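User: tokens in, sequence out, please.
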């Protein structure tokens, strides 16, 4: 899996070199893509460090440093002179920049899950069909005694669980997104369960185009995200401050 989506020109986007149509396309992609938002934050942080370099330093060097040097830079233990030289080199070296980005992601892990769920009608009730799921989250099996439709892959509700950790405090919680078809409407009901709750974290539900529908602290074991949520694409994001800890991209399809 690439570190970010290479077809999305983040650098030209940030430098304002895209035309309006290209910019709108990248805007829409970034709003719905946690990977590219994370890479964009990395680019902004890296470019901020270039502002202090002199023209002589910006000339850089063509020789790639030892991996240990990049590791020490990411850890913040590299001396200032060597750090400035490394930043100048990475301005022209994609390989070393990618290595730094990979180290940063390892140090600040973030979970990501993507699922496609269809609401289906079965006899006098509605069930959910999981068409696809990928990422770090796990689709939980139905508990004993919970009925299952005769149609393969159909169930009363969908529960996706992932362990989300704060890399700074090392605190973690089992985060479960539970989705079921609203029996009185045409959409789905969503709620988040956290064990244990994390009042310093916040959960938000947003449309894929970036419009935020709700955002509240995870102060209780169960937090409603929405009732009769219309079919469409959504992102459930777990954040602490400005840092994204986990994202769940959920596509809900109308009854077939």
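Assistant: Sequence out:
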């Amino acid at each position: 899996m690439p570190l970010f989506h290479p077809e999305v020109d983040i650098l030209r986007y940030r430098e304002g070199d895209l035309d309006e149509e290209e910019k709108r396309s990248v805007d829409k992609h970034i709003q719905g893509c946690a990977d590219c938002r994370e890479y964009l934050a990395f680019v902004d942080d890296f470019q901020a460090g270039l502002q202090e370099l002199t023209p002589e330093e910006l000339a850089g060097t063509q020789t790639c440093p030892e991996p240990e040097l990049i590791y020490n830079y990411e850890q913040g233990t590299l001396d200032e002179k060597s750090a400035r030289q490394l930043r100048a080199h990475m301005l022209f070296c994609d390989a070393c920049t990618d290595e730094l980005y990979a180290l940063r992601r390892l140090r600040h892990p973030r979970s990501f899950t993507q699922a496609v769920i269809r609401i289906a009608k079965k006899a006098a009730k509605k069930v959910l069909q999981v068409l696809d799921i990928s990422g770090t989250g796990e689709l939980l099996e139905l508990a004993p005694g919970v009925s299952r439709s005769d149609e393969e892959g159909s169930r009363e509700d969908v529960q996706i669980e992932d362990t989300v950790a704060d890399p700074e405090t090392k605190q973690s919680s089992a985060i479960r997104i539970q989705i079921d078809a609203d029996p009185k409407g045409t959409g789905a009901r969503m709620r988040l369960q956290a064990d244990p709750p994390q009042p310093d974290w916040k959960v938000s539900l947003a449309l894929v185009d970036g419009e935020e529908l709700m955002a509240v602290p995870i102060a209780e074991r169960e937090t409603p995200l929405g009732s009769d949520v219309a079919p469409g694409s959504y992102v459930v994001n777990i954040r602490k401050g400005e840092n994204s800890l986990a994202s769940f991209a959920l596509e809900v399809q109308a009854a077939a």
